[in-house]
Recover the amino acids of this structure.
């Protein structure tokens, strides 16, 4: 018998009826002859409710206690799922992250999994039980403190359990049918992908596709665990994330698509540092200061300096949420670096074209930029990786840009099959 | 520096403001120079809400999973209390029952504490932290499963921590000012007791006084930990439970009151087995069957059998909640035992007079029964212990009986000082 690991997010566990539906789904996998291990998130909005309570009690709660508080959410949902399974005539055992052997570092609120020691889980499996594990949480190796894994934590828990148990597959149940060639809310003709490689999925996730969190995909790639993303509201096959773009078998395949999909992201802002003296060390001073302020920079563009003035402009993008801190940090550098002024723009969007095929097919960039131009979309910044081209456009142009790129690369389906595309919570 | 253990129940932790008030109270004890360890219950009605959720998911949830679910309640309150303390400029560390070393047997839902291994708590105290412990919960010695202690569990947690840490005192904060000579809702002139012995408190608790749970008092007596019951809504001194009725120093004291108080209990029902053949083994058959059905019997009275028929009646009291099961069990015995019929009466109440002094003062029973008679109260059953006399009366007579006994033994205060008398939750 093989082991199947499943993950259900908060939107699949919104109330008692949803929990019973999930329980039926879990027992079907068991009936099909599998050993089943399930990672669950907290029910619906319960994490937000706990955060509200914390905010009422303390404006800046200690991270250790916040983790202690939030981990109650998964504890509640895992016990309820186990009860619902028992009501269907199967036996289930729920385990906290700590009991399940999810060992992390000591960074409260965004701990990283160091190891999984699944002794108790294996024992429960061997006794014939379905195992339910609290997602999003673990216990720190050094201090034995309860930790949480941060955003996407339950996806990561599920993948880590699958790796430790050498599971056949990690099924991520969510409220969409899988990974699409674009957000179906923008492109109604977007197609669901049957498979996508780890590298492409990583680029999609990093470029704004919300269906899977980056960390869980990284973990799955490292341990070579196939992830099957599918809907908890239907029995349709979803998207399987598996295989590498560097797999020799894949290289020869005629079927591998050139472009996997078009992602977009409205969560970034752009800062331009105007009139920076074009000399050694100026850019380093700017980005060192931003790094010290814990700000994540995405794209960076530096113009060629005007010969007359020997001044240049440096633009970069960063999350909206870091905008205020970044501007304050940069203002503090004005005299030291000697730039002229700062511009801040939140009205931007990023469009990314992702596909392993672009390595072997010349002209992808040209086709992409031509499509943007024909759609009347002005490109502000460009960055590329081996299998991705991203452009920054005006926020109002995002929908048109996504649609244009999707059509230009023949990604449109013959029929509309999409459902609403949503977030995955954690 | 001494160690003070405090306990706050759900009614003292009903919302964010209540939690902040409790946090201030805790920090005052720390400021006064004590090391402080606090056991907390779940907030307000949150345990009932979790039970509701469980009932929606499964009509008969497995006990293991119910414990996993319910322990989330204390986890939430302990983290919030720790946050609120941190907001006042002190540091606090919260610990689950398991982390705090509360070791129990494996009986889910009503586990007994076997041992407390407070290594982590001591470590946190030594580092200067205020320690918050989830009440009502522990971890089983044999199976390492999460357990709950059942009713009165957080009181017991607090006393067990006090014993393990050799604390100076265990303060139980509740919504009443202390232990009273009678329920002030019935007897407005009831007085708060300054002190009461363990034995008297045990009898009061067993006889219906809800302010402290029996198990916690037993634990405190065994380990000789003084319990200070007081209000979390005022700074008044409450009642200290300490000392034995067998303490030689106490025997000589003129100040020891003869009667500690009058308790009442409306939670019992009475079953009468009519026309039982008066021969050896009949009573044993009846009560063995009830014991096998897990029914707790309180008082038992057997009439002298009528010479003509050689038949007797056996009456006993038991909790309302066991009434249905008991009647079903007894009906099943009818042919075997050969009794005539069964009578069931829920409209009863129990009045108990409790006091160490009744051992050395003759005539207490006579005075009690006389007071009942003068108040027009008919006595149905009588039982006594060394320091207690209990009578069963009609439910409508309970208030008059309590008031009459209270007055007869000169327990009335000169002035009314009572607040509303309530339950303690768990």
């Amino acid at each position: 018998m093989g082991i199947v690991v499943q993950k259900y997010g908060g939107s699949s566990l919104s109330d008692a009826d949803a929990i019973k539906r999930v329980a039926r789904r879990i027992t079907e996998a068991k009936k099909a002859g599998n050993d089943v291990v399930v990672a669950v998130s907290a029910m619906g909005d319960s994490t937000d409710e706990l955060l509200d309570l914390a905010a009422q009690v303390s404006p800046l709660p200690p991270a250790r206690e916040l983790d202690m508080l939030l981990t109650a959410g998964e504890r509640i949902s895992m016990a309820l799922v186990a009860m619902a399974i028992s009501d269907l005539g199967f036996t289930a055992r729920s385990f906290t992250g700590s009991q399940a052997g999810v060992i992390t570092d000591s960074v409260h609120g965004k701990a990283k999994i160091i190891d999984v020691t699944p002794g108790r889980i294996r024992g429960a499996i061997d006794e014939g039980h379905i195992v339910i594990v609290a997602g999003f949480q673990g216990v720190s190796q050094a201090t034995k403190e309860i930790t949480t894994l941060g955003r996407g934590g339950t996806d990561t828990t599920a993948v880590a359990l699958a790796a430790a148990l050498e599971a056949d597959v990690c099924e991520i149940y969510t409220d969409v049918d899988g990974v699409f060639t674009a957000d179906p809310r923008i492109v109604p003709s977007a197609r669901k992908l049957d498979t996508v490689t780890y590298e492409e999925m990583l680029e999609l996730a990093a470029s704004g596709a919300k269906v899977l969190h980056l960390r869980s995909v990284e973990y799955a790639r490292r341990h070579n665990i196939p992830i099957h993303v599918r809907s908890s509201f239907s029995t349709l096959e979803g998207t399987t994330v598996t295989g590498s773009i560097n797999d020799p078998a894949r290289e020869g395949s005629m079927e591998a698509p050139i472009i996997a999909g078009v992602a977009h992201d409205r969560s970034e802002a752009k800062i331009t540092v105007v009139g920076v003296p074009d000399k050694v060390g100026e850019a380093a001073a700017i980005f060192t200061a931003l790094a010290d302020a814990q700000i994540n920079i995405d794209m960076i563009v530096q113009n060629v300096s005007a010969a007359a003035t020997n001044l240049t402009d440096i633009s970069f993008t960063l999350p909206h949420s870091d905008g205020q801190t970044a501007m304050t940090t940069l203002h503090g550098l004005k005299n030291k670096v000697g730039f002229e002024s700062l511009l801040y723009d939140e009205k931007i969007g990023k469009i990314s074209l992702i596909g392993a095929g672009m390595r072997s097919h010349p002209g992808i960039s040209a086709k992409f930029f031509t499509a943007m131009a024909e759609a009347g979309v002005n490109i502000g910044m460009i960055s590329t990786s081996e299998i991705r081209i991203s452009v920054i456009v005006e926020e109002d142009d995002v929908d048109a840009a996504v649609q244009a790129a999707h059509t230009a690369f023949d990604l449109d389906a013959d029929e509309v099959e999409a459902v609403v595309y949503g977030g995955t919570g954690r």
In short: Chain A has 13 helices and 20 strands. The interface with chain B takes residues 16, 19-20, 50, 53-54, 56-62, 64-66, 68-69, 71-73, 75-76, 78-80, 82-84, 86-87, 91-94, 99, 144 of chain A (CB under 8 Å).
